[in-house]
Automatic annotation (TrEMBL):
Coiled coil: none annotated. Keywords: Isoprene biosynthesis, Magnesium, Metal-binding, Transferase. SUPFAM superfamilies: Terpenoid synthases. Its cofactor is Mg(2+). This is Polyprenyl synthetase family protein. PANTHER family: FARNESYL DIPHOSPHATE SYNTHASE. Belongs to the FPP/GGPP synthase family. NCBIfam families: FPPsyn. The keyword Magnesium applies.
């Protein structure tokens, strides 16, 4: 990353998110479940989704992110973390490493890992209900929470994962199914992050739709870049999957179109994302973040 302005923003936002997550996940009894939840939440994730939520809010409200947006931003990160814990399980990708560390089930066993994932999803719902109540049932906050849970459910992330699972081990021959899988599995939670920030800022429906569209294209470009890095990157060095069940069985834009064409998709989706966000981005951070995510080397 060569922009110190972006680096500074990411540091500022990550610290805010981390402090808030720490408060939200205060240890109670039984301790083991909190340990397992906290292990994956504090395992070194980039905090991309909560940062997008904060940035969307700050861009549209001209205010610094505070409690009013941090609760839902952190709820999104908890849902993201639960999906990674479950995705790594032996019944799914069967991965032993994530972010360079042993996966949740390797450390805590399968039963606790399943429960930790469930507990994070449950905690996200609890946080959203508390947040809505604290804010006098503001209709925008209710709409944000509804969007988040829909985007992570069967019409979104879980639906995308189901397409992935039922096609595992065989080649997807229909490009539109592949697109639908990526859109649901990855983009919709990223969309939700942008949309939730926009709702909390009080944006109108037209702006909400633009932020939704931005998140969609950013998510697609981000996922395809991730798949390219899985093939061309040194997966051991960057601490991603073992590659065991992951790479050869996966249906991705790279396995379907090849690296070059996949990179063209990254370019075209990211240009679409940039075109939308440019008109809202007064500080330039959104543009820098988009560029950074889709050009990253690890
Ligand atoms: C198990 C319900 C269920 C869903 C799983 C999200 C997902 C669906 C699976 C995770 C594996 C995967 C390939 C997800 C695609 C999105 C993606 C690139 C996730 C990694 O996101 P980053 O890079 O992760 O933001 P960090 O580690 O930074 O938090």
């Amino acid at each position: 990353m060569n922009s110190s302005r972006l680096a500074e923003y990411l540091k500022y936002a990550q610290e805010k998110v981390d402090r808030h997550l720490d408060r939200l996940l205060e240890k109670r009894s039984p301790e083991i479940i909190y340990e397992a939840m906290r292990y994956s939440v504090f395992a070194g994730g980039k905090r991309l989704r909560p940062i997008l939520c904060l940035l969307s809010y700050e861009t549209l409200s001209d205010k610094e992110a505070d409690e009013s947006v941090l609760d839902i931003a952190c709820a999104i990160e908890l849902i993201h973390t639960y999906s990674l814990i479950h995705d790594d399980l032996p019944a799914m990708d069967n991965d032993v490493l994530r972010r360079g560390k042993p996966t949740n089930h390797v450390v805590f066993g399968e039963a606790i890992a399943i429960l930790a994932g469930d507990a994070l999803l449950n905690k996200a719902a609890e946080i959203c209900f508390e947040w809505i109540l604290k804010n006098n049932a503001n209709i925008n906050f209710i709409k944000a929470a509804r969007y988040l849970f829909k985007a992570s459910g069967t019409e979104g992330m879980i639906g995308g994962q189901v397409i992935d699972v039922v096609n595992s081990g065989k080649e997807i021959e229909d490009g539109s199914l592949l697109y639908e899988m990526h859109l649901k599995k990855t983009s919709m939670l990223i969309q939700a992050a942008c949309v939730c920030g926009a709702y909390v800022a009080g944006a109108n429906q037209q702006i909400i739709s633009q932020f939704e569209e931005y998140g969609k294209y950013l998510g697609l470009a981000f996922q395809i870049r991730d798949d390219i890095l899985d093939i061309i990157g040194d997966s051991e060095k960057i601490g991603k999957s073992t590659g065991k069940d992951a790479i050869e069985k996966k249906n991705t834009f790279v396995t379907y179109y090849g690296v070059e064409k996949a990179q063209e998709y990254v370019r075209s989706f990211s240009q679409k994302a940039l075109k939308i966000i440019e008109r809202y981005d007064k500080t330039g951070i959104f543009i820098e973040l988009t560029d950074y995510l889709i050009n990253r080397e690890k």
